[in-house]
Amino acid sequence: MARLNPTNIERAREVIARYPQPRSAMIPLLHLAQEQDGHITDDAKAHIAELVGVMPAEVHGVSTFYEMFKHEDVGRYLVGVCTNLSCMLLGADELLAHAEDKLGVKVGGTTPDGSFTLEQMQCLAACGGAPCIQVNYRYFENVTPERFDGVIAALSAGTDPEGQAVPPHGTLSRVSLPHPSTDADRERPQEIHS
Amino acid sequence: MTDTSAEQKTTVSMTVDGRAVEAVPGEMIIAAAERAGTYIPRFCYHPRMRSVGMCRMCLVEVVGPRGPQLQPACYVPVAEGQEVITDSPAVKKAQDGVLELLLINHPLDCPVCDRGGECPLQDQTLTFGPGETRFVEEKRHWEKPIPLSSLVLLDRERCIQCDRCTRFADEIAGDPLIDFVGRGDHTEINTFPDQPFASYFSGNVVQLCPVGALTAEPYRFKARPWDLEQVESTCTSCSVGCRVAVQSSGNRITRRLGIDADPVNQGWLCDKGRFDYEAVNGDDRLRAPLSRSGDTLGETTWGEALGKAADALAGARDRHGPASIAVLGGARLTNEDAYAWSKLARVVLGTDNVDCQLADGLPAEVVLGLPHATIDEACEADTVVLLTADVKEELPVLYLRLRGAAVAGATNLVELSATTTGLTRYATTSVRYRPGEAAEAARQLVAGGAVTGDKVVCVLGRPSLAEQPDSVIEAAGVLLDAVPGIRFLSGLRRANVHGALDMGLAPGLLPGRVAAADDGGWFAGAWGTLPETEGLGAAGILEAAAAGRIQALVLLGADPLADVPDRDLAQRALAGAGFVLALDGHLTASSRQADVVLPVVLHHEKPGTATNLEGRVTRLGQKITPPGSSRPDWMVAVELASRLGGDLGLETLDQITDEIATLAPAYEGITRAALAAAHDGLLAGRDDASAHEAPPTMSSAEHPEVHAAAALGETDIVASEPIAVRETPEPAAAKPPTLRHRPAGRTATPPATDSYSLRLVSSRALYDEGTLVQHSPSLAHLGRGAAVRVNPAELERLGVTDGAQVRVSSSRASLTLLVAVDEGVPRGVAALDYNQAGPGAADLIDIATAVTDVRVETV
Ligand code: SF4
Ligand code: SF4
Ligand code: FES
Ligand code: FES
């Protein structure tokens, strides 16, 4: 499907210019492609290969290594339930079963309206708050079935679940460009939600 | 005495299992231990590639401050005082564990696996493994083999993720078209979707894979390793001369594998060299002599065919004079074949009209008379000047060597070429010249200071068949004058063309790189007679034949209609020659027009020697018996000589090898005994110290499929007792000097093209319509077809789109071809691969003109 659009080609060039080796920009550019299309298409991979001067097979290899890159369309919200040891001991399996029931899809599935994709995740390094879920990589800890339902309801209503803003899947956090002359004291990263 | 010694120490002292070992600083423990006789098991480690420490099979204990620690021997460099333990219980346990882990997902389908019987995973499991597994769960499953290309298939279930194939593709071949995809237990090797592993070097990964995950389409299910017999030989599909193991089963060649000859191919082969043995096996081989009656060639007996040929040759010689006989070709021959034909022509036929090139190379004095360089010298030179056709297309493994040297920063590549080539991206300087203007470009290059350093090598070949080589030769002269100590590595591509030249198959030349003018009675005495006048080269022979002055034309594996870059002239020559005798393994366009065709044996069907582009003489191995009644070319020469009332004094192959060593000055010392003792062959005509021989580096452990030397099917591998030289004539004169040549003089710059014309460049792609490729079913379809490639600006000027049909016209012909846009072709130039299917460059070129201008127009 889609190669990078002109705006994103511009952004890609900026990002590439920040690295001594163009190929080092591969991962940021994959995020850019995922933001553009919701997942990473073969055309985008081939385009990134052109931009950073490698073969498409190398971009394919890198992009398939990282689970955060999706190669097929996913819902607006990616709901991941951790089922590793700590979470499992505190009821993650039951939580996952509940999530499947609630959303009406099995792990890996997407709701028919395209809102939610359910994933099973490995340890999210939030064992202290087990069981833990992520929605578009935002954390919700000590999740009970009731709290899970609350999060889903808020997202479905277009409001922030538990007061936490969750931008649609693929949205990037952007770091504003440092001014060339003040590179040394570069600004703190800012999140911009588009 | 204090310690300059520490600085001067060039080895590292360590112990392996308590034994003292001297290691080379910087090498890995695994290599030092192996040299000292301790084999550490491994899968991912390969001595010709970067260590990655992927498989953990090589774990050993290295004693450190906290006692012995398990470390990967392929990833830890040797150190002074290092203690390495390879046989402790901890190491054994680690090996058990690694093998048990690797086998968790391995399908164990050895009975149906090509690798079974020569598989490092099988072998090492047996030697080092636990013998049983605790894993009872389901193994992972993948679709059984998927094609990575038309030549290589991948069975992902068998893959142990050692990273050898991917490292090879990236580091060695420079074609990173395969990579790891996915992660964890979903990891697989794969290509980008719909982008096959179309590398000229893809077959190497099949040989490298330590399991049966990668298989080669031409070999799959053809044989079991224990049924294979093997000889060592040299690939003669181009002039690089890679060392190969030729394996057969049931009198058919089943496989060709690379052998690690350090100065040449370092284990690698190109896919043409690996797979074109299919042509030798082919059912379309000539099996019996053919003789013309009227319009048809019909089978006949050797007696009849030789009688007819001898009558024609005698008739021509006796009625029209020896100059009415000509011999074309010879690059397919062994040195011994070429020597016999060289002698037959000079002594019995009395003609010096001989040429092993087909107006497609460089004059013999240029190839032989400039100071020679080896491949190693090129790879270690400060600067390598490339003045030849695309090395990747024509001399693939030389491309690997030069690319490797450039990537490692060991040399600077400086390219002089008409269009972008495979090496352009690795060159520090790349200069485009217009065909016919190479000399001027060389002058500018030298003036601009691009050729630096004390050690400079020029790879000199025939950059384009659409321009005559004069300007390129002048450019070589410019470099010779401007760069003291410069050496030249020949870029001529054709099989054993260097051996044929060394045996005197060129006008005015005698065996051992002797100019006939310098003979001083040496060959005249030894052979009894020599032609009085210098003969014609290929172009002259063809002109003379076309004009009806050649009564007998011999084609030694030559196919002028395909290979002479002037098809019109070749056609007129074949039609005009009184009698045409062809010696070949297959019928070609040209031999179809011959009066008598003699079936001859091809490589792997005969022993002998060959000489590669650096002058390295190696032995060829015979593995199978030839089809039908085919004979070696030298026997045909001997037989014809006796039917013509002469005697070459040659009765056996060994006798010819001996006579070459005795008579041919550049081959002095290259005796059968010396060749048998030299793993990597011997350099002809090099007595300077720099051309030393590296010790053999082939590790049979690395490649169990290349059987250990003891298992070679050769009987005469050691010829250590002195060999009696039978009846070699005793020349009265002193040995003549070998040829020295200094190109001099200026060539005229060709006139500018008119504003509608483009100047044609034509050279070969690896896969073309050549006999071996076309008779190898696995390769025949890989040619990229004849398309005229032009700069985008020219396409725009013409107002046609990429891929459209255009008319391409020269003074000779007008063809309809596809046009392809190519940024690598400068404005004003049109590029067209030579010898692709259908009409092409050979129809457009007139070898009487310095350059070929074409008009490209819409149809
Ligand atoms: S296919 Fe073979 S060479 Fe490639 S990673 Fe797998 S086991 Fe290694
Ligand atoms: S590079 Fe030449 S000699 Fe080597 S394998 Fe290929 S064709 Fe044979
Ligand atoms: S086990 Fe779930 S966050 Fe660590
Ligand atoms: S051989 Fe050392 S880790 Fe594979």
Provide a descriptive summary of the structure in words.
The complex is a heterodimer of chains A (194) and B (859). Helix content of chain A is 38%, strand content 9%. Chain A has 194 residues and is of the alpha+beta class. In chain A, helix 1 (6-17) packs antiparallel against helix 2 and helix 3 (42-52) crosses helix 4 (56-65). With 859 residues, chain B is α/β, with parallel strands linked by helices. Among the domains of chain B are: 5-87, Ubiquitin-like (UB roll); 290-360 and 497-702, Rossmann fold; 364-490, 3-Layer(aba) Sandwich (Dimethylsulfoxide Reductase, domain 2), CATH 3.40.228; 757-858, Barwin-like endoglucanases (Beta Barrel), CATH 2.40.40.20. In chain B, strand 3 and strand 4 form a beta hairpin. The longest helix of chain B is centred in the middle third of the chain and has 19 residues, at 302-320. Chain B is globular. The chains are: A alpha+beta (194), B alpha/beta (859). Chains A and B meet through helix 3 and helix 4 of A and strand 8 of B. One iron/sulfur cluster binds at residues 159-165, 189, 208-211, 213-214 of chain B.
Strands, helices and their partners?
The complex is a heterodimer of chains A (about 190) and B (about 850).
Chain A lengths: L5 H12 L8 H12 L4 H11 L3 H10 L11 E6 L2 H5 L2 H12 L12 E6 L11 E3 L2 E3 L4 H12 L38
Parallel strand pairs in A: 1-2
Antiparallel strand pairs in A: 1-3, 3-4
Helix pairs in contact in A: 1-2, 2-3, 3-4
Chain B lengths: L4 H4 L3 E5 L2 E5 L5 H7 L23 E6 L2 E6 L10 E3 L3 H16 L15 H9 L17 E2 L4 E3 L9 H9 L5 E4 L6 E4 L11 H6 L5 E3 L12 E6 L8 E7 L2 E7 L12 H5 L2 H4 L8 E4 L2 E4 L2 H19 L4 E5 L5 H15 L4 E2 L8 H6 L5 H6 L2 E5 L3 H4 L1 H12 L4 E6 L11 E4 L5 H10 L8 E5 L9 H13 L4 E4 L6 H6 L6 E2 L3 E2 L6 H6 L10 H9 L5 E5 L3 H4 L3 H10 L2 E6 L11 E4 L8 E4 L4 E5 L12 H11 L9 H11 L8 H6 L4 E2 L73 E5 L9 H4 L2 H4 L6 E4 L1 H7 L6 E5 L4 E8 L7 E4 L8 H4 L8 E6 L1
Helix pairs in contact in B: 3-4, 9-22, 10-22, 10-23, 15-16, 19-21
The structure holds iron/sulfur cluster (2 copies) and FE2/S2 (inorganic) cluster (2 copies).
One iron/sulfur cluster (SF4) binds next to helix 5 of chain B.
